[in-house]
């Protein structure tokens, strides 16, 4: 049996990465969570450039969890780039951001995201959110038997 496709998490805050990993594991999700800390590395990963050129080691993800506020290229830059890549049309994208600004939510939705989540400040809330959303976000073969 092959491993499920990974999930790419574009997030520059190491605390947020730590807490999402914890919630991810607690929710029993088999997909590996791969973190990239900025928009440019997200683009490099998705395009298979530089250190991500080996698709055996760095397969395309089935889901992108994308923060909006990152150094260099931000989440909107990444979204605009993805929408210009025909090969990435089927990539599911969820915004996981601290921003609850209506204009950010509307703009992200116009760029074709499947969900927009304002990051909860509580680990239990985050875990419950991941548990609730995993069936919508991920292919069914990604679930572990827990």
Keywords:
single chain; 146 residues; alpha/beta; Rossmann fold; five-stranded parallel beta sheet; 5 helices; 37% helix; 15% strand
Can you give a write-up of this model?
- The protein has 146 residues and is an alpha/beta fold.
- It has a single domain, classed as Rossmann fold (3-Layer(aba) Sandwich).
- 37% of the residues lie in helices and 15% in strands.
- It contains five helices and five strands, in the order E-H-E-H-E-H-E-H-E-H.
- A five-stranded parallel beta sheet has the order 2-1-3-4-5, with helices on both faces.
- Strand 3, helix 3 (75-82) and strand 4 (92-97) form a beta-alpha-beta unit.
- Helix 1 (14-26) packs across helix 5 (123-137).
- It is globular, with a radius of gyration of 14 Å.
- The model is unreliable at 142-146 (pLDDT under 50).
Write the layout of secondary structure elements.
Layout: E1 7-10, H1 14-26, E2 33-36, H2 39-47, E3 63-66, H3 75-82, E4 92-97, H4 102-110, E5 115-118, H5 123-137
Parallel strand pairs: 1-2, 1-3, 3-4, 4-5
Helix pairs in contact: 1-5, 2-3
Largest sheet, described in full?
A: 5 strands, parallel
How many distinct domains?
A: 1
Strand content: 15-25%
What is the CA–CA distance across the termini?
18 Å
- Spatial order of the strands forming the largest sheet: 2-1-3-4-5
Mean pLDDT equals 92
Oligomerization status of the protein chains: single chain
Helix content: 25-40%
CATH class: Alpha Beta
The unreliable regions are 142-146
* CATH hierarchy: architecture: 3-Layer(aba) Sandwich
């Amino acid at each position: 049996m092959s491993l499920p496709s990974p999930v790419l998490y574009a997030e520059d805050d190491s605390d947020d990465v730590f807490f999402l990993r914890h919630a991810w594991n607690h929710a029993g999700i088999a997909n590996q969570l791969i973190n990239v800390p900025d928009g440019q590395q997200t683009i490099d990963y998705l395009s298979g450039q530089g250190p991500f050129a080996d698709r055996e080691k760095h397969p395309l993800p089935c889901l992108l969890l994308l923060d909006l506020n990152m150094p260099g290229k931000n989440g909107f830059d990444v979204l605009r780039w993805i929408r210009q890549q025909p090969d990435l049309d089927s990539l599911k994208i969820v915004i996981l951001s601290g921003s609850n600004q209506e204009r950010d939510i509307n703009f992200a939705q116009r760029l074709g995201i499947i969900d927009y989540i304002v990051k909860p400040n509580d680990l239990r809330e985050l875990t419950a959110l991941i548990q609730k959303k995993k069936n919508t976000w991920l292919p069914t073969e990604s679930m572990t038997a827990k």
